[in-house]
Design a protein that fits this description.
322 residues; alpha/beta; 13-stranded mixed β-sheet; 6 helices; globular; binds zinc ion
Length: 322
């Protein structure tokens, strides 16, 4: 029998449940979750992954993380959902939900009467995110996307929330940290933006990509989650020292005006200069169409690895220092 709302167990216990939605749009799906209750008081941390269902290291990190928690040594509570976008996971669909072709991570805080992605966002926001005092949403490059690890948060204009989220993002320990404006910049409607607007400090963390399940990428997420637990006082331990991350002020997304076959000239992690070559588009006869250059100085945070690019297709995300 699935739970119609999240159930936390008695202190010192873990409840492995299935969350069912009341929305008819979401009928037929039940979301595995773990609700872990420590033996002492503390905050509730919500950890989710798989809003993009083919991002495997984050999913595995939530699976491994939630099973490794010992409730007998935990202060506070952890609510963990390894796979939010179940239709995309089963269909191995990148970027969107196959039920409606929309990106659920542009649909927050959601709409119970909207399409599948909007109803899913509403379920996640109401049942998971709002149950937490803090949110960590794990991501990576998608099936055809390579990526350099980074972490980000969206500012809300609420000073306490923004400072807390930025502390979490730095604590997570990845080489780049992006603090995005309250508008969300190039990505409005995200989990972290909606959480922040509701007064819940939230971060997203990106490590891994191109459909691979590498333990080294999973480990970056696991180490980050453990650092967050220590930072929030939920477990004991000493933080290992980290290099100071490079701060980014925005992620500039470059798209192709016309579709075609794209020969990229930049890899994830490369430094790019304004006016520098990102790649060359040829048409499907091989005829040169366009040389695509960077509009800004920055670092290639994520790069589309597939050469098959449709009109307005995403080529690269460039993190701009500042
Ligand atoms: Zn993602």
């Amino acid at each position: 029998m699935a739970d119609s709302t999240i159930i936390f167990p008695a202190p010192g216990k873990t409840h492995r449940g299935l969350l069912a939605a009341t929305s008819p749009t979401l009928a037929g799906y039940e979301w595995p979750y773990l609700a872990i209750r420590g033996v002492a008081d503390g905050p509730t941390l919500c950890v989710i992954a798989g809003i993009h269902g083919a991002e495997y290291p984050p999913i595995d990190a939530v699976l491994q993380f939630s099973r490794a928690i010992d409730p007998a040594t935990l202060r506070g509570q952890i609510l963990a959902v390894p796979i939010v976008n179940l239709p995309a996971f089963w269909a191995r669909t990148p970027f969107v939900c196959p039920a409606d072709g929309k990106n659920p991570n542009r649909a927050f805080p959601g709409d119970p009467h909207g399409s599948f992605s909007q109803a899913l966002a509403h379920l996640v926001f109401e049942q998971l995110i709002k149950r937490g005092d803090f949110l960590v949403d794990l991501h990576c490059g998608d099936l055809v996307e390579d990526l350099v690890p980074y972490c980000g948060m969206q500012e809300s204009g609420i000073d306490r929330v923004d400072r807390s989220a930025l502390d979490l993002a730095v604590t997570f320990g990845l080489p780049y940290v992006c603090a995005e404006p309250p508008t969300g910049g190039s990505a409005a409607g995200t989990t972290d933006g909606a959480a922040a607007a509701a007064g819940i400090p939230a971060i997203y963390a990106e490590a891994g990509g191109i459909g691979q399940l590498r333990q080294s990428d999973v480990d970056l997420h696991l180490r980050g989650l453990h650092r967050v637990l220590m930072h929030l006082g939920m477990v004991d331990g000493d933080q290992d020292t980290l290099n100071t991350p490079t701060m980014l002020r925005e992620v500039v997304v470059v798209r192709a005006a016309r579709g075609g076959f794209f020969r990229k000239a930049v890899a994830a992690g490369d430094t790019v200069q304004a006016g520098g070559l990102i790649g060359r588009m040829v048409d499907l006869w091989g005829e040169p169409q366009e040389e695509i250059t960077s509009p800004v100085d920055g670092v290639a945070l994520f790069v589309t690895t597939s050469p098959a690019i449709s009109a307005e297709g995403l080529l690269i995300g460039i993190g701009v220092p500042g």
